[in-house]
Amino acid sequence: MENDQIIKLWEEFAEGKDFKLNPDTKIVQALAEGVLKNEKNKGFRFCPCRLGDGSHEKNVDLLCPCNFIIHSTWKDKGRCWCGLFVKRE
User: Fold this and answer.
1) Which of 10, 28, 53, 64 is 20 to 30 A from 19 (CA-CA)?
2) CATH number at residue 12
3) Is the dihedral of CA 53, 65, 11, 80 positive or negative?
4) Residues 6+ apart with CB under 8 A from 65
5) Which secondary structure element, helix H or strand E, spans residue 76, and what is its range?
6) Is the pTM of this model over 0.90?
7) What is the C-alpha to C-alpha distance for residues 37 and 20, in angstroms, rounded to an integer?
8) What is the pLDDT of residues 60-85, one digit of tens each?
9) Could you tell me the residue range of the domain that residue 56 belongs to?
10) How far from the centroid of its chain's Cα atoms is residue 48's Cα?
11) Is it the case that residue 14 has pLDDT exceeding 80?
């Protein structure tokens, strides 16, 4: 999978929801690279901004996109932990 393909998946994931992809394309590109690198090296699309041990069972909450709506950064700052998704205005 390429960066543009995963970004397209993220865009589709956000369609019709209260959030959208971060308009800063540099952030989105960097996150796409990190997620795909983790998939290649660890076998799962783990968020590149959070540390895990690489096991799916222990790190399921690090899978991208994670359940970011429950995190304090969503409530306090209107974005997910890594900044991939932001609240729609």
Assistant:
1) 53
2) 3.90.460.10
3) negative
4) 10, 13, 80, 84, 85
5) helix 72-77
6) no
7) 23
8) 777 788 888 888 888 899 998 889 99
9) 3-87
10) 8
11) yes
